[in-house]
Design a protein that fits this description.
single chain; alpha/beta; Rossmann fold; Heat Shock Protein 90; 9 helices; 54% helix; rod-shaped; disordered N terminus; binds adenosine-5'-triphosphate; binds magnesium ion
Length: 398
Amino acid sequence: MEKDLQNIKILIVENSEDARKFYLDLLKKYNFNVYEASNAKEGIESYKKNLPDIIITDIIMPEMSGFELIAKVKQINKNTSIIIISAFESIEILHQAIDLEVCKFIKKPIHWDKLLNAIEMLSKDIKSKKLIKFQKNLIEKQKKILENRVENEIEKNQEKESLMFQQSRYAQMGEMLSMIAHQWRQPLNAISASAMNIEIENSFGELTEESIESNIKFIHNQIQNMSNIINDFMNFFKVEKESLEFTITSLMKGIEDLIGAQFRSRGIELILNFKEDITLNSYKKEIIHILINLIINSRDAFDDMDIKKNKIVTLNFKDKRDTFEIAIIDNAGGIDENIIDRIFEPYFTTKEQGKGTGIGLYMTRSIIEKNLSGEISVRNIDSKNGKGVCFIVEIPKG
Ligand SMILES: Nc1ncnc2c1ncn2[C@@H]1O[C@H](COP(=O)(O)OP(=O)(O)OP(=O)(O)O)[C@@H](O)[C@H]1O
Ligand SMILES: [Mg+2]
């Protein structure tokens, strides 16, 4: 008998002590783990305790029959292999054995070869089932480990993403503050001029009640204007929960309101081009965010390249069938071909420390792909305005 079949556990249930001893000695010779019981009740106890793979049992036993024992064992584990050894072989007994899915029926007096053959066959079957179970468990365990690893990675990734989102938000808030400062400059100058007016008129003794009133009204208007600017920016920072209908005109106004003043003061011409006004159903603020990210990169490129004149950023809006396309074109010199493939990577920047974090384009692409279901691409161009970069953003219309 093969060596690897031998750690099979066998329970012998037999009320004749002589017969039991005989089986026991025989099977032990083959190194099986053998348990014994002198009646069916003891057999059940031993079964529960030792969980044998095979039970060899007699049928006719006092108190409880072998069939009752088999029925109980099958309730616990219906795959347990059973060998019946009996002196009786009526049709009724055979039927009952078949009903209980007994594996082998061996008639007394026993041919030992037959018994050993039966055990060997069952053992092989049990072994291969055990092997399959072991392999299944192993696969399950490995699957669990992999799943855990994937989950951990996803979690880590989400943490990283949210950290980056936070960083890019701070960076954008910094930009917003500088935009507000630019937009406040004009009303602040106007208020200061109005105050100076009052001062001059007063010093000449010409300050009339009407003049005071009209100057105060003017100052109130300017303050209201400044307050509106703050509200616009605050509003812009609220997260957009659902897509809404809006027109290209309103999108462009949003960009102009946020960044127009700053660009004019830096001598950058912002050209917004579109042939016909279309209505989109999308996330307007997100789109403004990404466009501002791109436009600000152009602004920085003019600074980096120390370009003083003829600074132009053009946004071309194009209506396609199911999508709309925005081309963001500048003439700030372009991107080195050696690094152009890397600019969307997180933390990739060519700017000095403190000037850029390198997450602007990463976040821009992530917003376009994940939130807007769109695409972004980049290439260097050489237009009539000079060499520069062209980003193409394509987004579904709704
Ligand atoms: N219009 C452009 N012209 C020239 N280079 C550009 C342009 N846009 C992006 N780049 C290059 O791509 C790099 C990555 O841009 P990205 O917006 O991701 O980061 P950043 O601007 O350096 O920093 P951040 O946006 O996080 O403040 C930039 O450092 C710059 O080298
Ligand atoms: Mg940037």
